[in-house]
């Protein structure tokens, strides 16, 4: 059976370190790191994530502000709020929770965030830095950054020459994940909905990352013996066995099957999810350090 990768524990380690470094920053007389989280509309999953981000920021000792905006807000009003946060010296990190309502151009909103406060790592400047290997000064998107940390916990820092397959090509996870693995000298393949014989490709992977948003799509026989499996999916599915109308969370990987073959695997929940929030804290702290000079 595979080793279970305890993302919750690693995330707690990261948050503990962020907390300690924040205390050090304050002792030097520097202002608290400031994180602004912006949520538009009432998507229940987004509300849960955002509440968790704001709560963890407070736990780290940050100045934490949340802007909860109505779904009908105009694009211009939202851009104006971001402009104010860009100019606010108490704010080091700005996160606009996605998805945004259809009448708002999410791309335009993201590109309005000042790159040096873009703790999500979605601005072209940060995407470009990651793509060109400027990892020292880039903000790296939180979910792939957290996934890398988990991979390094299992395989060590030297991933050179390993075959990595990333299933999913989103800007939030798939593409930045592939870039991080490439920067770590893996041989990287990005697979997606048009990929031919995905199962056979997945079986070549020493590191298999699933980020497609399709419940339990990656089956046990897609997994090479001893592979490290990182499941980024968080899918809510019906669970009639728990009673009528009940649901449960599953990943993009059929966990019970995959755990028989994998060397190590992240569970859902308790794997990548907590790492996303922890890395947001690390990015915000890094931004505060950079601002402090
Ligand atoms: N929605 C789903 N994941 C993310 C994320 O990492 N950042 C933001 N801003 N929105 C998201």
From TrEMBL:
The family classification in the record reads: Belongs to the tetrahydrofolate dehydrogenase/cyclohydrolase family.
- Residues where NADP(+) binds: 168-170, 234
GO CC annotation, single? cytosol
HAMAP family recorded for this chain?
A: THF_DHG_CYH
Q: Give the catalysed reaction(s), semicolon-separated.
A: (6R)-5,10-methenyltetrahydrofolate + H2O = (6R)-10-formyltetrahydrofolate + H(+); (6R)-5,10-methylene-5,6,7,8-tetrahydrofolate + NADP(+) = (6R)-5,10-methenyltetrahydrofolate + NADPH
Q: Does RNA-binding count among this protein's keywords? A: no
What is this protein's function? Catalyzes the oxidation of 5,10-methylenetetrahydrofolate to 5,10-methenyltetrahydrofolate and then the hydrolysis of 5,10-methenyltetrahydrofolate to 10-formyltetrahydrofolate.
Q: What is this protein called?
A: Bifunctional protein FolD
Name the Enzyme Commission number(s) assigned to this protein.
1.5.1.5, 3.5.4.9
How is the quaternary structure described?
A: Homodimer.
Q: Which UniProt keywords apply?
A: Amino-acid biosynthesis, Histidine biosynthesis, Hydrolase, Methionine biosynthesis, Multifunctional enzyme, NADP, One-carbon metabolism, Oxidoreductase, Purine biosynthesis
Listed GO MF terms = methenyltetrahydrofolate cyclohydrolase activity; methylenetetrahydrofolate dehydrogenase (NADP+) activity
A Gene Ontology BP annotation from the UniProt entry: purine nucleotide biosynthetic process
Segment forming the signal sequence: none
A Pfam family: THF_DHG_CYH_C
What top-level branch of life does the organism fall under? Answer: Bacteria
Q: Show where the Tetrahydrofolate dehydrogenase/cyclohydrolase catalytic domain sits.
A: 5-120
Source organism = Mesorhizobium mediterraneum
UniProt xrefs under InterPro entries: Aminoacid_DH-like_N_sf, NAD(P)-bd_dom_sf, THF_DH/CycHdrlase, THF_DH/CycHdrlase_cat_dom, THF_DH/CycHdrlase_CS, THF_DH/CycHdrlase_NAD-bd_dom
Locate the Tetrahydrofolate dehydrogenase/cyclohydrolase NAD(P)-binding domain: which residues? 141-288
Instruction: Identify the metabolic or biological route this protein is part of.
Output: One-carbon metabolism; tetrahydrofolate interconversion
């Amino acid at each position: 059976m595979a080793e279970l990768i305890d993302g919750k524990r690693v995330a707690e380690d990261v948050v503990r370190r962020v907390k300690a470094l924040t205390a050090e920053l304050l002792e030097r007389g520097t202002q608290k790191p400031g994180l602004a989280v912006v949520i538009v509309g009432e998507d229940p999953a987004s509300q849960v994530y955002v509440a968790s981000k704001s709560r963890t920021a407070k736990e780290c000792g940050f100045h934490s502000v949340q802007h909860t905006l109505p779904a009908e807000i105009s694009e211009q009003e939202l851009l104006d709020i971001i402009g104010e946060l860009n100019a606010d010296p108490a704010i080091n990190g700005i996160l606009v929770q996605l998805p945004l309502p259809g009448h708002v151009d999410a791309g335009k909103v993201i590109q309005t965030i000042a790159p040096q406060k873009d703790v999500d790592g979605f601005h072209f400047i940060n995407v470009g830095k990651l793509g060109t290997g400027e990892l020292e000064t880039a903000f790296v998107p939180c979910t792939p950054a957290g996934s890398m940390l988990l991979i390094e916990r299992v395989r060590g820092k030297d991933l050179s020459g390993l075959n990595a397959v990333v299933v999913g090509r989103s800007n939030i996870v798939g593409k930045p994940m592939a870039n991080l693995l490439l920067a770590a000298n893996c041989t990287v393949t990005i697979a997606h909905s048009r990929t031919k014989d995905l199962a056979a490709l997945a079986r070549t992977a020493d590191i298999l990352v699933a980020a497609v948003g399709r419940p339990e799509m990656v089956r046990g026989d897609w997994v090479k013996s001893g592979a490290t499996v990182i499941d980024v999916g968080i899918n809510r599915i019906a669970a009639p066995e728990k009673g009528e109308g009940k649901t449960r969370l599953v990943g993009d990987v059929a966990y019970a099957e995959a755990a028989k073959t994998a060397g190590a695997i992240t569970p859902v929940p308790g794997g990548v999810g907590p790492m996303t929030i922890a890395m947001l804290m690390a990015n915000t702290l890094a931004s505060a350090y950079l601002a402090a000079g």
